[in-house]
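so i finally got all the pieces together for this one. its two components total, 418 residues if u count the protein bits. some of the lines might not be protein, just check the labels. i wanna see the whole assembly predicted at once instead of chain by chain like last time, that was a mess tbh
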Amino acid sequence: MTAFRESIEAMIPALRRYARALARDADVADDLVQDTLVRALRSERLFLGGDVRSWLYTILTNLNKNRRRSLARRPQFMPLLDNNPDASGTEAEGRDIARALATLVEEQRAVLLLVMLEGLSYREVADIQGVPIGTVMSRLARARAHVKASLEGERPALRRVK
Amino acid sequence: MSDPKIPVTEDELHAYVDNELPAERRGDVEAWLATHPDDAERVRSWRTMADALHARYDAIADEPIPRRLEIERLVRQPRKWIYGVIAAALVGFIAGGGVGWLAHGVAASPSTFQNFTLDALDAHRLYVVEVRHPVEVPGSERAHLQQWLTKRCGWDVRAPELDATGLKLVGGRLLPGPTGPASFLMYESASGERFTIYTARAAAGTTQMRYARQDKDGALFWAERGVAYVVSGSSDRERLTQVARLVYDQTEKSGG
């Protein structure tokens, strides 16, 4: 296997994590990863060096944007119950954070996940989204405020139900 | 060391949590947090949020990789063009609607303008999301692609070189157009941004360039010696114009 392919392969676990948090549904998430890999492998000769990691996150983020755009004209089907409880941490907390993420707009969710979950720098996220760093920071600030409010608003309700 | 009396901004609090703050300012922020409990609480909540994200999603990265995502398998995957052919046949039946025209009051034949651009935008949206079968003939067979489309369409179809804008030819396909066959070429940047060039026979001889946008897609339309061109892609007008200009310059040189 070429070094290029190896560097792509090494990124699969992180891409799956990011895709799952971004798209929620496990099958949709792996579809996104598969499409990202297919596109990356096809572009092997187009890739002129640089950071494979950022490049893969860019492709996945763009693919998800395209996917959502093509879904936008159809009625949205959301799972009534989240059947994917977290494998670790408490179940309620995992559902809370997933639910809070789902309420974010696309760009804010991507920024939040790329920075907080995937550990990318503001500069890298700015390049991935094709926006200035200032825009990344304001999206991040809004996303954090929104998720914080959502978590604080939901937790007591969930506890009462339990 | 910077002046600790300079108030700490919200941006700095985020940068502090994300390790993006210059080292010499960290001490200031820590001193600030010791005396500003509200900010300290926010910083704490962001760290808790990060912990919750990792607790929820890290396990996915530890799972064994599903077979369908194995590199060797993906490299060997055969291409099935049949889906592309079915999709191409469907394009003709898709009705456009709700285009937010920026070019209101277009004098010459607005219907031609609208028809072509709607068809082109529909084709654009249908195929840019395609990952495995975006085209019938791949860009690696450029000469064959041009020959074939020229023969089927009846005018000189050239795939322009768009390397100057970072775009490479993905390939092309034949589509049913408003008055006969249409050619459809797709280009892609290294980051997956896609542009398409749609050409069809037009009654209008030669027109100026016009811009239309629908949702997040933008299109530039013009006609030249009886052939209509629609370049579709990003709604960023500057970027689109840059690409369209390059297409225009090359079709002009090749003689339409």
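Chain A touches chain B through 55 residues (CB under 8 Å).
Chain A has eight helices and no strands.
anyway lmk what u think
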